[in-house]
What does this fold into?
Amino acid sequence: TPLVSLQGIGKVFANGVTALAGFDLDIRAGEFISLLGPSGCGKSTALRIIAGLTHPTQGTVTWPAASSADHRDDIGFVFQEPTLMPWANVADNVWLPLRLRGVSKSDARERIAQSLALVGLEDFAKAYPRELSGGMKMRASIARALSMRPKLLLLDEPFAALDEITRFKLNDDLLRLQRELRCTIVFVTHSIYESAYLSSRIAIMTTRPGCIAAEVEAVTPTE
Ligand code: ADP
Ligand code: ADP
It folds into this structure.
């Protein structure tokens, strides 16, 4: 059974723009799936619908294996722009959502240390976002998402604003992270190379009319 199943999803915005029409997608537990397609084809909208941040105007989203009522607890979301709070250091940026979730101080301390180590920022806990490079800011955003221990990690063109060398490094780190954490990853990108490098499966989207044109599966497992 899939982790999440999107069936017949349509999204028409208030301004009349159709982002998705008849969109079907099953997310399998443990996979690294890329949503690949040109700008405007509805990738972000699909991701936001999976996260429950946007409601579809048509179709259903189901979590067949889950019993919990609020799946948002199991989801980590990483946006294209690192959304760090400039007035807080890296550790506090990771800590704030944990505090909002009611995680105890001692548990939070452990999670902060662990997630910063996972992204290689253990020496930058006290640094402020303005002191970090673009790549490091993105790492901090990923650490913040990981500290919630998500089953499902959703990344919306996370490395699009970074230079290629940094992107390659972060791609490798993301693959290593998934092997270590065994989480499911949905990765939105417009880069064919990036999706081919990272994914166990690629859903290719086109602009007309915002549905999946093809699915490509890795022949050899990535492990
Ligand atoms: P992608 O992530 O593939 O670039 P999006 O999901 O962001 O595509 O957008 C799909 C389409 O929906 C685009 O035409 C975009 O302009 C439109 N769209 C996205 N968000 C909104 C919104 N909040 N209101 C109106 N139109 C939107
Ligand atoms: P980029 O994203 O610019 O490629 P990386 O995250 O790959 O940066 O880090 C490159 C190296 O530079 C790392 O070893 C990091 O520790 C170091 N570094 C980057 N910015 C700083 C800083 N403000 N202070 C100290 N070291 C830094």
The two ends are 22 Å apart (CA to CA). The first strand starts at residue 4 and ends at 12. The chain is about 30% helix and 25% strand.
